[in-house]
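User: tokens in, sequence out, please.
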């Protein structure tokens, strides 16, 4: 199943948890250099359409349920959920997070502005992203 927002071509950085963990370890080893600093970790630059293309390549073309909507509609629904029940965090916060990642103008693509060099990390290749998808598909 894939939900595509605003056409699916907004680039965003996607970083797997093990890469984030390595970055955290480096930050903890360099407390003075990273004190009060914003650290940006960049795994791979994707779009929703590119991610879907890779996923189809790995697990096959058949059986996908794809819906398309706009981040504007998602924002409206998220605010309605917030007004109805602010304590139902998942009902509105996940929508807001999706807007920040997939909506235009939020700056979720760190491919040209990141701290990977300092952290000793390299951007992931397309084949590495495919392998992550393959591993996750096997876990299902």
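Assistant: Sequence out:
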């Amino acid at each position: 199943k894939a939900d595509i927002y605003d056409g699916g071509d907004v680039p965003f950085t996607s970083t797997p948890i093990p890469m984030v963990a390595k970055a955290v370890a480096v930050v903890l080893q360099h407390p003075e250099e990273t004190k009060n600093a914003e650290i940006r970790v960049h795994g791979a630059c994707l779009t929703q359409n590119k991610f879907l293309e890779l996923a189809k390549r790995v697990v096959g073309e058949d059986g996908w349920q794809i819906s398309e909507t706009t981040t504007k509609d998602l924002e409206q629904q998220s605010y309605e959920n917030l007004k109805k029940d602010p304590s139902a965090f998942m009902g509105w916060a996940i929508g807001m997070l999706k807007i920040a990642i997939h909506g235009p103008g939020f700056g979720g693509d760190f491919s040209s502005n990141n701290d990977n060099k300092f952290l000793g990390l390299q951007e992931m290749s397309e084949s590495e992203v495919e392998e992550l998808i393959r591993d996750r598909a096997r876990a299902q």
